[in-house]
Design a protein that fits this description.
Strands 1-2-3 form a three-stranded antiparallel sheet, with no helix packed on it. 47% of the residues lie in helices and 15% in strands. The longest helix has 23 residues. It has a domain of 64 residues. By secondary structure, the chain is an alpha+beta fold. Strand 1 and strand 2 form a beta hairpin.
């Protein structure tokens, strides 16, 4: 079924599929690894932002030294937030 969809798409575009190779990056291990790492990073940031109910600015400002591993998971301490300057926000992740 997928092969037939590909054939139909090529017929509709008037091409034989050879021109696509000029436009696409080659599928190498390095490219796959790079995109896999980006995907992991993006998913991790989304999960941390959701679990900690973080604002975009707080999520973008996270530093590694603000994370601490505990026996129950991770603790994220955000010293800069919209709270008074002498307080810190702690999110359990």
């Amino acid at each position: 079924m997928a092969q037939q969809m590909w054939v139909d798409a090529l017929a509709d575009s008037g091409g034989d599929g050879d021109g696509a190779n000029d436009l696409a990056d080659p599928l190498t291990r390095q490219n796959v690894w790079r995109y896999a790492l980006r995907g992991l990073r993006d998913r991790a940031l989304l999960l941390v932002g959701f679990a900690g109910a973080l604002r975009r600015s707080e999520l973008a400002a996270i530093r590694v030294d603000q994370l601490k591993q505990t026996e129950r998971g991770l603790r994220l301490t955000l010293p800069q937030s919209k709270l008074p300057s002498d307080s810190a926000r702690i999110a359990a992740l």
